[in-house]
Amino acid sequence: xxxxxxxxxxxxAVKPGQAISMEGCEDCHLGLIASLAGxxxxxxxxxxxxxxxxxxxxxxxxxGERGEQLIDCNESHVVVREIVSIxxxxxxxxxxxxxxxxxxxxxxxxxxxxxVRSTTIIRDAVSSRLIHDIPKLPDALPKFAVxxxxxxxxxxxxxxxxxxxxxxxxxxx
Length: 173
What we know:
Blueprint: E1 8-14, E2 20-23, E3 29-35, E4 46-65, E5 69-86, E6 93-94, E7 113-116, E8 119-122, E9 125-133, E10 143-154, E11 159-169
Parallel strand pairs: 1-3, 2-4, 3-4, 4-5, 5-6, 5-7, 5-8
Antiparallel strand pairs: 9-10, 10-11
């Protein structure tokens, strides 16, 4: 995503081997971001890369599975309410060097800030899966709920569940 403002995305599921990349985005709110491995005990790469000049961003929760990096915050300003690592991460977060010339038309600033309010590492995680509960469309229109759950299976048979539900209202106002 490049040169966007006031974007709100409640749930993002990142395919294994891919990452979210943002540049020049301002006043954006991202909800639950999940990057899970394709195989039990597997690893993910980078979950989100704030390449350059992203300002006044908030992210509710970032999930990564034994991630290379869960967030890379270059020349950007972001508040992350919680980072959850499923298994031991290789690196939770990185604050890279300020970026050189970029594709964005947004103004440059030389400072960056990454404010992570809470970090959870589920060290005994064995595997995880992403469950989307989506109603049958178009029958559910114009107002429907989407629920996303991340199920983490732990050593000894225990489970941890993380859920987010979003209501979508497409009725004319």
